[in-house]
Predict the structure.
Amino acid sequence: MKTIVTMGRGGTGKTSFVALMAKYLIEKQAVPILLVDADPDQNLAEMVGVDLETAGKKTIAELLSETFIERGGTMAGVAPSKRIESRLWEEGLYEGGNFDLLAVGTKWVEGCYCLPDAALKNALVTITRQYRFILIDSPGGLEHLNRKIANDVDVVLDVMGPSSKSFAHVRRAYRVIQETGIRFGRFIVLGGYAFTPGLDNRVAAETGLPYGGKIAEDPYIAEHVLAGRSLLDTPKDSPAFKSVSKILESVLADM
Ligand SMILES: Nc1ncnc2c1ncn2[C@@H]1O[C@H](COP(=O)(O)OP(=O)(O)OP(=O)(O)O)[C@@H](O)[C@H]1O
Ligand SMILES: [Mg+2]
């Protein structure tokens, strides 16, 4: 079971990249996969053609909110993240043919995602099904790292934007992830779809981190994300899918 986590500033193309990674792994029959949407502004499900509500599935935040706010459950005793564990697998996990999906979700009123993130972390260590890959899509920014949504990660893929701020972000992300004590095997920087060609040479020099290639800009992706359609149907000859396949081939070769 290999865990891959995306990181990066807002809007660099992390979620569409995760959807295209899933497509690649499904085509390689490297399944089953667990997709984890750790972004409160969830949109990974939509990008892989899943409607959790229609499927009758709840997000982690919804389950917590139901259990501890609407039903007035006590927070005392066993940690809330542990107490919703069984409900989480029964009522939260979307089960598909090639992949399952779990979302942190947005329905949390306290302002802090500490509890949903703690529940997610707890869920990830108690997984009983043997997945070939766990792909975690993170929200933009770094705050979630402090809440340690995962303990043990094989590869961190940081999707960079085209700005000089992105360089500072990558350096900070690398430092923060080390400080949190999250165990990770490799940290690889990727050029997001808006990355300009000259920037790739700067990555290794300015960050000291390995560069894994660039995600190609592709109008098909932009259109389909906007329309809320699944990226799993992306044609194989799409520039974005081809670039993601190339990136993953080399990432997986070293695994
Ligand atoms: N390969 C691509 N080619 C062209 N446009 C893209 C590509 N990938 C993403 N986009 C565009 O960028 C927008 C943001 O993409 P996405 O939601 O994947 O980014 P994100 O990093 O997950 O954002 P957030 O930080 O808000 O979660 C999409 O709406 C889409 O229009
Ligand atoms: Mg996203």
Observations:
- Residues 2-253 form a domain with the Rossmann fold fold (CATH 3.40.50.300).
- Strands lie at 2-7, 33-37, 94-95, 99-103, 133-137, 152-160, 183-191, 211-214.
- The pocket of magnesium ion (ligand 2) is lined by residues 14-15, 39, 137 (CB under 6 Å).
